[in-house]
Amino acid sequence: MTHVEARRTMSGLEFFQRMLAGEMPPPPMIELMGIRLAEVEEGRVVFTATCEERFYNGTGVAHGGFAATLLDTALGCAINSAMPAGRRFTTLELKVNLTRPITKDAGLLRCEARVVHVGGRTATSEGRIIDRNGKVVLKIVGQKNWASPETIEQLQKLL
Questions:
Q1: Which of 36, 44, 64, 154 is a plausible cystine mate for 114, CB 3.0–4.6 Å?
Q2: Full strand arrangement of the beta sheet holding 136-147
Q3: CA separation (Å) from 66 to 30, 49, 53, 78?
Q4: Is residue 153 a contact partner of residue 86, using CB atoms and an 8 Å limit?
Q5: Beta partners for 91?
Q6: pTM to 2 decimals?
Q7: Which helix (H) or strand (E) element contains residue 155?
Q8: DSSP per residue, 12-66
Q9: In 3D, which of 142, 147, 32, 56 has the Cα closest to residue 105?
């Protein structure tokens, strides 16, 4: 069963509980980035990741895209964990505030995200990345836009 097929029949919370229990594989993108689901409850998730030199830019720190990917994953999954079966969405807006550079010296990064608001067409979540010393390295707010499964499938056919 693919992730899309699973989400048609499972709530977001059930989907992530199964992933956390090892009954569902992680999506390819988070596996590629070494991101791991650590905690889930309705409207809240925690992911962990370790910054590696392969994520560095030319200045010797993690590329902003590494942190943004970690946070976008958590923001979307926090909202997804509060959704019924069949509800799908995509990122509408993402605002990132990097407060300090991330290097491999940061150790295990903990990315926490929670739902702030769920409306009729959009939802908002917020999150932050904390290094092994408990220092916030990034805060973010993101919005997700609802789309029916049919709309997403039509858009995918156009690409």
A1: 44
A2: 36-41, 44-50, 108-118, 122-130, 136-147, 88-98
A3: 11, 10, 11, 19
A4: no
A5: 144
A6: 0.86
A7: helix 149-158
A8: HHHHHHHHHTTSSPPPHHHHHTT-EEEEEETTEEEEEEE--GGGB-TTSSB-HHH
A9: 56
Q: Name the CATH topology of 3-158.
A: Thiol Ester Dehydrase; Chain A (3.10.129)
Give 66-104 pLDDT, tens digit per residue: 999 999 999 999 999 999 898 877 788 888 888 888 999
**Residue that is written with structure tokens 């959009």 in the block:** 122
Tell me if residue 89 falls in helix, strand or coil: strand
d(CA 82, CA 35): 21
Q: What is the pLDDT of residues 29-64, one digit of tens each?
A: 999 999 999 999 999 999 999 999 999 999 999 999
Largest CA distance in the chain: 46
Structural domain boundaries in the chain:
3-158
